[in-house]
Amino acid sequence: MQEHIIDMNEKNTLAMKLLHYFITEKGYTPIILQGAEDEIWLENLDEDYKVVRLVMRYIHNDEQYKFDIFKTNRILRKIKKKTLSFKLNALSIFLDLGGAVNLDEFKTNNITVVEVHEDSDIKKNKLLKSIFPDLSRKLKFSEEGIELFVKVTNDINNHNMKDQEKVEDVFSPKKPIITYALIIINLLVYFIPMLLGNSDIVISYLGSYGLSVKMGEYYRLLTAVFVHANIAHLLFNMYALWIIGMQLESFIGKWRFLVVYLFSALCGSLLSVVVTPDALSVGASGAIFGLLGALLYFGYHYRIYLGTVIKSQIIPLIVINLLLGFMVPGIDNAAHIGGLIGGALMMIGVGVKYKSSTFEKVNGLIVSLIFFGFLVYMALFL
User: Fold this and answer.
1) Is residue 1's pLDDT more than 90?
2) pLDDT band at residue 275, thresholds of 50, 70 and 90?
3) 347 close to 259: Cβ distance less than 8 angstroms
4) Is the pLDDT of residue 35 over 80?
5) What is the widest separation between alpha-carbon atoms in the chain?
6) Buried b or exposed e, range 180-219, using 16+ CB within 10 angstroms
7) What is the mean pLDDT of the segment spanning 251-280?
8) 194-229 per-position pLDDT tens digit
């Protein structure tokens, strides 16, 4: 029978304590990297230091240290690209550094390096105390040896299970009832008047027409979103609403989705009135662009899971459609832009589940109301 012996020397014990702190207390998650031996990479995109490295490998001279910095920068560039991060600060904690190594010699703007060999070094380190004030206190355990290993392992596993449950809660498929309801309303608004021979009357009385809105027919700002000019216009918008709406409603929930949709619709109609007050505008595209803006903000928070989709699908879709709006006559690009901005702002206001703080949501609502008030003033009073 083969036995596995756990090496509980001082370096490995300290590494386990640090790993326990960063995962269970600060919400970092391990990054799987090929070829990274005797080092642990941790990631939390919501922290100032988005990457933390625990380096157990012995580095005994400046050449090895210089190569470590070079390799770290190369990996950070890949992580930055994958996670759509504009700035990626990293903290490298060296647990086995030789006395001949000069940490200040190869400083970089995005990598902060510290050296610790035992628990007392953390308490003395001013930088670590300023970044993580509770670190030294959280490294105190009553368990030792194998008992410490078991406790740390169990705590990390429990924390990871809770995180996984949150991710499954957000990304598990849910029935998009609001999306279906919106599509049905749009279809009814188009086909019932068409069957009765009153399509032109519906467009005239429910479309967003700047002069009528300024005269007090404010309902047009919302009703215009459920009216379409022709069958191709209707089918294109309903297909987009079905594809985008199903995903976003499942991710953020029904009431958040409805609030974002309606707010985007109003912002799109208002900006349309500001830019083209003498034009008649109809269609759901402004609200759909709002859903894209909301999906962009949501995806940024969950970019570990959606980073590739954001880069390859969402951003190109937004850019291409906006460019088409500028180049093709008859497209109300002002409604698209107003909806896009409104959707992103209101998504901040309603918040991303498990990610947004109360402070962020309050600020999002305030900015959304300021933006809406500005559009109302520009559309109705100027």
Assistant:
1) no
2) very high
3) no
4) no
5) 88
6) eebbeebeebbeebeeeeebeebbeebbbbbebbeeeebe
7) 96
8) 888 888 889 999 999 999 999 999 999 999 999 999
The 3 state secondary structure assigned to 133-157 is: CCHHHHCCCCCCHHHHHHHHHHHHH
Which has more confidence, 2 or 348? 348
Cβ(271)–Cβ(375) below 8 Å: yes
DSSP string, 92-143: EEESSB-TT--TTTT--SSEEEEE-SSHHHHHH-HHHHHH-TTHHHHT--S-
**CA distance linking residue 223 with residue 269, whole number of Å:** 10
Residue 216 dihedral angles phi and psi, to the nearest 5°: 115, 0
**Alpha carbon distances (Å) from 367 to 174, 270, 351, 370:** 30, 16, 13, 5
Q: Could you identify the residue written with the tokens 């903290």?
A: 91
The whole-number pLDDT of residue 206 equals 95
Residue 36 has what pLDDT? 67
149-163, 216-230, 271-285, 300-314: which has the minimum mean pLDDT? 300-314
Helix, strand or coil for residue 232? Answer: helix
Q: What is the pTM of this model?
A: 0.86
Q: Are 72 and 53 in contact (CB under 8 A)?
A: yes
* Whole-angstrom distance, CA of residue 115 vs CA of residue 219: 65
Closest CA to 210 of 269, 154, 127, 292: 269
Say if residue 104 is exposed, middle or buried (CB neighbours under 10 Å; 0-12, 13-18, 19+): exposed
The torsion region of residue 35 among left (phi > 0), alpha (psi -120 to 50) and beta comes to left
One-letter amino acid for residue 241 of the chain: L
37 Ramachandran zone, left/alpha/beta (phi>0; psi -120 to 50) = beta
Least confident of 122-126, 156-160, 348-352: 122-126
| CB of 18 closer than 8 Å to CB of 125 | no
Distance (Å) of CA 327 to CA 130, 320, 321, 324, 330: 53, 11, 10, 5, 10
So which residues are the catalytic ones?
285, 336
DSSP three-state, residue 43 = strand
- If you count them, how many residues does the chain have? 382
- When pLDDT is cut at 50, 70 and 90, the band that residue 4 belongs to is very low
Burial of 348 (0-12, 13-18, 19+ CB in 10 A): buried
Which of these, 42, 18, 5, 37, lies nearest to 119 by C-alpha position?
18
